[in-house]
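Contributing new complexes? Match this layout with pyridoxal-5'-phosphate.
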Amino acid sequence: MPEKLAVFGGPKAAPTDPQALIAWPLITREDEEAVLEVLRSGNMSGTDITKRFEQEFGAWLGMPHCLAHCNGTAALQAAMFACELGVGDELLCPSMTYWASSLQTYALGATPVFVDIHPDTLCIDPAGIERWISPRTRAIMAVHYAGYPCDMDAILPIAEKHNLKVIEDVSHAHGTLYKGRKVGTFGHVAAMSCMSAKSFAASELGMLATRDQYLYERAIAYGHYERHDDLTDPRLTPFAGYPLGGVKFRANQLASALGRSQLRQYDARVAEIQRAMNYFWDRLEGVPGIQAHRPPKDSGSTMGGWYAAKGLYRAEALGGLAIERFCEAVRAEGADTSPGANKPMHIHPVLNGCDIYGHGKPTRIANSDRDVRQAPESLPVALNSYNLCFSIPWFKRCDTAIIDEQAAAFRKVAENAGQLL
Ligand SMILES: Cc1ncc(COP(=O)(O)O)c(C=O)c1O
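Output block (do not edit by hand):
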């Protein structure tokens, strides 16, 4: 029995406002007290609280060395430097991600080279990596996109074969498991944003994690001059005192204190988010044209805190219905959604025509010994990503009555898509 869609004046499938389940970050009295204590002591620029946070975070993640940064962008830049990405080098990175997975290469004299994404995972497609490897490739950036773990079993052997470092960008995936093990523990080094919108939210903060003592010390040497007493490697100790990057990447201790108290609450929150988000997708199993963006249930892999949660859109199953029209109709039913995710980076002018440092040619070319610019169609999935996925409500609490309504909004539009054609 066809139902009249709300865009055509029918009754809304999701009349209840879901905002109470969506609100984020959650700040408790414990968080406030932790921050106030630092504020009252005036100890914002120290490192003692930050070091405690690093230890606790490392114990949670399962990594011996953690180094907090003022934000995720800085932590990723330090990770790139740690991996010896330098003048003329290339970093392989998925085209569809936030710019800070790769753009800091420019500041190191290097450049990103983009790789296509897989249409089901929205992460780097391992089958597309080797095509872009050159003698100047130094590292692969594995971005666990929108909570989904990258296919590390495929990526790691490629890196090993070509002697490349693997950097994990865990900004979307704190607590995500890949085959039973936390992401951020697979590569040579991991770095992540912990800014307020992320599933692990510690205001403005970034974290770097590694098992490798030398990489850890390189990251310290790069942006943490006040911690140079921790350097032991003779390749670095002669330069102690000045940050090699000429940058100051220390975390603000207000953020570190918040990070400590958020960490204590994090696993319970992730468990609740997972209950809610899996419940949402379980309600939509088998609905035409839309699919869950989550690993198979029996894989041991999870979506962590489901940051920036997405659904996969398959227009061909809905008679070719344009994703904009689909999303517009879902919004009219009372659930928030919009098409696409991060725009493909390889077509952006900053990666093609921008001379940032006055080389007299685009930085992307100046920082390489060849023209690494990539034709739009050379990464077809990323190029078309706007039509492949849509945002879904990010539930932090599992109120099944409200989630039933929200899921009904998506189901009603998908099952009545014919009305929109
Ligand atoms: C994938 C990814 N990497 C890096 C960053 C940069 O982190 P920050 O904003 O903390 O600098 C973000 C987002 O903020 C991100 O989404």
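Reviewers usually confirm one structural detail per submission. For this one: The first strand starts at residue 65 and ends at 69.
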